[in-house]
Design a protein that fits this description.
mainly alpha; Tetracycline Repressor, domain 2; 2 domains; two-stranded parallel ribbon; 12 helices; 3% strand
C-alpha cells in the first residue's frame, strides 16, 4: 500500500510527470494538494479562454484562484506549465473515457454520440474555447523550438478516434471508412468552429450539421439503434 505524505510538486517538472514518479516509489500527493491544483487549473482555464494565453499573468491567476503568490508558486512556476497541464488533462480525459467504454463493451454508436454531443455543446460555447490560447501558446518561439507537443496531442487524439472507429467497424456498427481521413474531418472541423466562435457568432445549427454528417459517414444505415434516433432530429 502506498504512503501519503504532505508534499509539494517540484515546479520544474509537470504534475503528470511528478505523479508518475510518485506512483513508482509508492507515494501519493495529498488530497488537498490535488484539489488545489485542480482549482488553479479551473480558474486559469477561464482566464485563458477569455484573454488568450499571452495576456494572462501569474498575478491574474493568483487573484482568480484567491491564492497568495506563494500558494500559487508552490504548485506552478509559470503560466506555460499550467497551460500545458490543462491541455494534457483534456486529451487524457477523452482517451480514458473511450477506453473505459470500449472495455465495458458499450455500443460504438453510443460512444460516438456521447463524444459528438459534447463536441456540439463545446463548439457553440465560445466563452470556454481555448482555441486562441492554444494558437498563442504553441506559436511562442521557445515552445515552437521544442518537440511539437501540439502534434503529439493530435496523435493521441487520433489514436483514440482510431480505436473507436476500429471498434465500431468490428461490431458492424460503422462503415469501413478511411479512418485517417474521417478523423481529420472531425478534428479540424471541430477546432475550426471553436476558433471561429471567438471571432464571429456561431449558432447551434452549424455544429449540429457537422455532427449529423459525421454520423452519416460512420454509422451504418442498417444499424437501427435507438441511440441514433435519440440524437438525430428529423
Amino acid at each position: 500500500m502506498g504512503l501519503t505524505f504532505d508534499i509539494d510538486v517540484p515546479t520544474h517538472v509537470s504534475y503528470n510527470t511528478f505523479r508518475h514518479i510518485c506512483r513508482k516509489v509508492g507515494l501519493h500527493m495529498n488530497k488537498r494538494g490535488r484539489e488545489t491544483r485542480k482549482h488553479i487549473k479551473k480558474c486559469a482555464c477561464s482566464l485563458f479562454a477569455e484573454k488568450g494565453f499571452k495576456q494572462v499573468t501569474m498575478k491574474d491567476i493568483c487573484e482568480a484562484a484567491q491564492l497568495s503568490r506563494g500558494g500559487l508558486y508552490g504548485h506552478y512556476e509559470s503560466t506555460c506549465q499550467i497551460f500545458q497541464e490543462i491541455i494534457d488533462d483534456m486529451t487524457g480525459q477523452q482517451e480514458n473515457e473511450v477506453d473505459l467504454k470500449i472495455k465495458q463493451n458499450q455500443s460504438a454508436v453510443t460512444i460516438l454520440n456521447d463524444i459528438l454531443h459534447k463536441y456540439e455543446k463545446e463548439m457553440v460555447d465560445s466563452q470556454s474555447s481555448l482555441s486562441v490560447a492554444i494558437y498563442e501558446y504553441f506559436s511562442i518561439h521557445d515552445i515552437a523550438r521544442q518537440k511539437n507537443t501540439l502534434y503529439e496531442q493530435y496523435l493521441i487524439t487520433a489514436n483514440t478516434w482510431k480505436k473507436l472507429m476500429e471498434y465500431g467497424i468490428a461490431r458492424q456498427e460503422f462503415h469501413e471508412v478511411d479512418i485517417d481521413a474521417v478523423f481529420d474531418l472531425i478534428v479540424f472541423s471541430y477546432q475550426g468552429v471553436r476558433m471561429y466562435s471567438k471571432l464571429m457568432p456561431i449558432n447551434e445549427e452549424i455544429p449540429f450539421r457537422i455532427a449529423r454528417q459525421i454520423r452519416k459517414i460512420l454509422v451504418r444505415s442498417d444499424c437501427n439503434d435507438n441511440h441514433i434516433s435519440s440524437f438525430l432530429r428529423e
